[in-house]
């Protein structure tokens, strides 16, 4: 099996044509309008947010740098973390790690508990609340797991006309990203250019070449695996299970001991 | 109640003392009927080895059952407060009262319940230390389950994620503590040979005079007399 795969997103090349949004919806058969209506709200970006039907979208940032106003475009979507909080909290195993470095999602297994939406440091998974409260389903970008596990590129990469998106071996993508950052710094004068995702959360599957600091794009400078999830999954769950089962076993033996020591004839 | 002993002329008179009202007994069993399915369905999301039951449509169904039972669970204290507010206040006052006898009780409890050694058991009021601990934990459990459960049910996307995750953790911890308490309560109330009148009192609302005298002497005799008797018994070594 090949090494880990990754997507490299060169934001400096993105022209916000939103072909990736369309390709994503087409390949993954996502409806266009159920959740976030295609509305402009004081911005050219559309739809206004990720949703169960919008797994990727271009975020428009109006950046006023030192010299002039500039648009920054960020292709949003799942980061496919190596240490993914959503996978660890998922009680159904609908979210899983794939050896190729994807965080895959099986909609049939999801029971709509929504823990993943509250665990992700990037606020990526969204809950489809269109049914009654118990019929919900989570949803997120899967890097087109059906395509990529069969040697194809994700639909968004395939369609990108600007060459902003590329897909391949993670090491290659990192090298390509580093070269691009260097070029942006020396040849184009973007002194804050950086590669995002190389080390964060064990290494992200979605790598960004950014021309400004991550915070300007609304990305966390230091994304953290929530400590409460470590406490919950690694400590409380096993300790609690042992405590409950231990009490049951102890009560059973206490019952046997008490029965052999206490004669009912003498009990009032 | 008088019982004629078979084949003889001897008649045993049993005096029954009321301990619980009808509403208390109904709500007690309603509480069990809600708590057990809540614990079972909750455990399916909690325990990794029960994952297959939490997946897909089965998982959606158990989440639905959990919510329906949660409504019943939360309704119980409200029904009690509305129907018998004076009893509720009286009982709450009694169960939140602990003194130094309770430390002696906890020390004496294991030899007593396992080996039947009664001599060290200090006199107890209407609820003994174990009953009161159980009640306190269940009362706190109602509050914590209610607040964290509502946060998880309705607060998703409204409260900040750290608060949601904290609610999950508190919900889990409350489950662990109440479930351990539930197991102990089940053992003592249902299975334990000395406590056979626990089931009688939760079915008919009464305990016998001899049982009350033995297990709840502060309630039966009053505080002062119960202590005198206990000192005397200990001095004489009578079981």
User: How many helix segments of chain B?
Assistant: 11
Q: List how many beta strands of chain A DSSP finds.
A: 10
Enumerate the strands of the largest sheet of chain B in spatial order, edge to edge or round the barrel: 1-2
The radius of gyration over CA of chain B amounts to 21 Å
- Strand neighbour order, sheet with most strands of chain A: 8-1-10-9
Whole-angstrom Rg of chain A:
24 Å
Weakly predicted, low-confidence segments of chain B:
none
| Structure annotation, total helices of chain A | 7
| Average of the residue pLDDT scores of chain B | 91
Terminus-to-terminus distance of chain A:
73 Å
Shape of chain A: elongated
Q: Class of the largest domain in chain A, according to the CATH hierarchy? A: Alpha Beta
Class computed from helices, strands and strand pairing of chain A:
alpha+beta
What is the total number of structural domains of chain A? Answer: 2
**Percent helix of chain A:** 25-40%
